[in-house]
Design a protein that fits this description.
By secondary structure, the chain is of the alpha+beta class. The protein has helices spanning 8-21, 25-37, 42-58, 62-79, 82-98, 102-116, 126-138, 142-155, 159-179, 183-200, 209-225, 229-246, 249-267, 273-283, 293-305, 309-328, 331-350, 362-375, 389-396, 398-415, 439-455, 482-498, and strands spanning 380-387, 421-426, 429-434, 468-475, 504-506. α7 (126-138) packs antiparallel against α8 and α13 (249-267) packs antiparallel against α14 (273-283). The longest helix has 21 residues, at 159-179. It starts with 7 loop residues before the first helix and ends with a strand.
């Protein structure tokens, strides 16, 4: 008997992982795209696309990564795949942060934080926590980033995951040290960063090129900053080789900067100016301002030593402008906005009541559906949409429109039988769940609802405005989710609208 042929999507995914480990991010992105194009379940495809987008970011294909992240976020949100949604939101927040679109970044991060609080702590969610910690760090949220890295490390169950986490932690501790004004606290942070970088470079661990290059470059800088110049030069030269081979521009800039600082510390050789210029050139256009502070300080010192006082003053003024920008960075305020936004979303998610009508909401429908299917089959769900409601809002204002929605809600509650459920889904859309009801009987119930709405005179609305309703009706399957059932009912609703409105369609 011949062996079964391996799944082509698995083969492509394995090749993508190998390409990523070797630092070939463009090739890895292409292979993840190839794997996601093969037949697979939705969640796995979204996961592959997230990994593709992350590789695109590493390859500095930012626009393509952002476009893909938007698609993934929409599909993951609709399907309820929370881990993939968090990853996509993190990529979108990165994009907004690069462009300094702070409100948009805050909105994306608030949703991500809200969802993170609902994810279970299990190894399968390591990558989500790690990726979001990296996003926090890029946004300047250092303490939350370090806390999340620590949680990710506790979930890591293999050497590659631990290596990535320690490498990212080393960069974040380095960033924290450079922001710190207290010399003793700065010293502690640098040593914590050195520990994390050394853990990432453990020879018994994995050999992820990206993690190795990142850990070496940051360890070289931190060695240089605490005066261990020989160690700094050794790490810097190795990091330069890796960064040059794999196109890691940020790590290359850091490695050259570390070599410049260490060379000056050992020899006071003015020729180090060439290394300073090379480091600053390599950092141009990258988000490395916080790490280039020691290089700018060194530049002033070298220029002054050479007697180039005018150039030294210009460099000092540039250094002061960069320092002022860091002081004005409202990281703490922005993080507070993210936290408050997440709290607000959490209240909205956990609340089961619609504020305007007092009806239960979609969240409540999800909770009662499982019990209804188990004990009250057959079950039907109808989605009711008001025909012509937009005209009421446009011609008579939202206050009168809100009044109509409240009257509709009260009417629907009155026609309910004991044990049935009515919810407001949003806008002028309501849902009704009917227990122990055949499709034929459900149609009778919803036709009665339509006739009541069409015959009513609405408070404050001219009598010449006739409000009607269209209904999409579907039969509940115990294998279907709430979202799938609502999608089926809405498909029937669209057919009712398309065929003239004021009718019920069963799908």
């Amino acid at each position: 008997m011949s062996a079964a042929r391996p799944d082509p999507s698995v083969r492509a995914e394995q090749r993508a992982i190998a390409a990523r480990q070797a630092g070939d991010y463009r090739q890895a992105a292409a292979l993840f795209a190839l794997a996601s194009a093969e037949p697979t379940d939705l969640q796995h495809r979204l996961n592959l696309q997230v990994r593709q987008a992350c590789c695109m970011v590493a390859a500095e294909q930012f626009d393509d990564a952002t476009a893909l992240a938007r698609v993934v976020a929409e599909e993951a949100r609709n399907a309820g795949h929370l881990a993939e949604l968090v990853d996509a939101l993190g990529l979108l927040a990165d994009d907004h942060t690069r462009a300094e679109r702070w409100p948009e970044a805050t909105e994306a991060l608030s949703e991500a934080v809200c969802i993170l609080q609902r994810l279970t702590l299990e190894p399968a969610h390591y990558q989500v926590l790690h990726n979001m910690a990296v996003t926090y760090a890029r946004c300047g949220f250092i303490e939350p980033a370090l806390e999340l890295f620590d949680r990710a490390l506790r979930l890591a169950n293999n050497d590659a995951d631990r290596q990535f986490a320690y490498a990212s932690m080393s960069a974040t501790y380095h960033d924290a040290a450079l922001r710190e004004l207290d010399p003793l606290e700065q010293h502690r942070l640098l040593h914590d960063g050195l520990y994390a970088a050394t853990a990432a470079l453990d020879p018994q661990g994995a050999n992820e090129t990206m993690a190795v290059g990142e850990a070496l470059a940051h360890r070289a800088m931190m060695f240089a900053e605490i005066g261990r110049f020989h160690d700094a030069i050794d790490d810097a030269r190795t990091a330069k080789e890796i960064a040059t081979e794999h196109g890691m521009r940020g790590e290359l800039a850091l490695a050259i900067a570390a070599e410049a600082i260490a060379t000056w510390g050992l020899s006071r050789d003015p020729s180090v100016r060439a290394l300073i210029d090379a480091a600053l050139d390599a950092a141009e256009g990258l988000e490395l301002q916080q790490y280039m502070g020691p290089v700018h300080e060194l530049e002033v010192e070298v220029l002054w030593t050479l007697g180039l006082h005018v150039e030294a003053r210009a460099a000092l003024e540039q250094q002061l402008r960069a320092a002022q920008k860091r002081l004005n960075d409202s990281c703490l305020i922005r993080w507070e906005h993210v936290r408050l936004g997440a709290d607000s979303l959490e209240v909205a998610v956990t609340s089961e009541s619609d504020a305007l009508t007092g009806l239960p909401n979609r969240q409540h429908l999800t909770h009662v559906l499982a019990e209804a299917v188990l004990h009250h089959s057959p079950v039907c769900i109808g989605v009711i949409d008001l025909d012509g409601f937009k005209r009421i809002n446009d011609d008579h204002g939202y206050l009168l429109g809100d009044g109509v929605l409240q009257e509709v809600a009260a009417m629907l509650e009155r026609v309910l039988r004991r044990g049935d459920t009515v919810v407001r889904l949003g806008g002028d859309e309501f849902g009704m769940l009917l227990r122990d009801t055949s499709p034929h009987d459900a149609r009778i119930v919803f036709d009665r609802v339509r006739h009541l709405i069409a015959a009513r005179t609405w408070h404050g609305i001219p009598a010449d405005i006739r409000l009607t309703a269209s209904v999409g009706l579907t039969v509940v399957s115990d294998a279907a989710t709430t979202e799938e059932l609502l999608a089926s009912a809405r498909s029937a609703l669209l057919e009712a609208k398309t065929n003239g409105s004021d009718r019920t369609v069963l799908r």
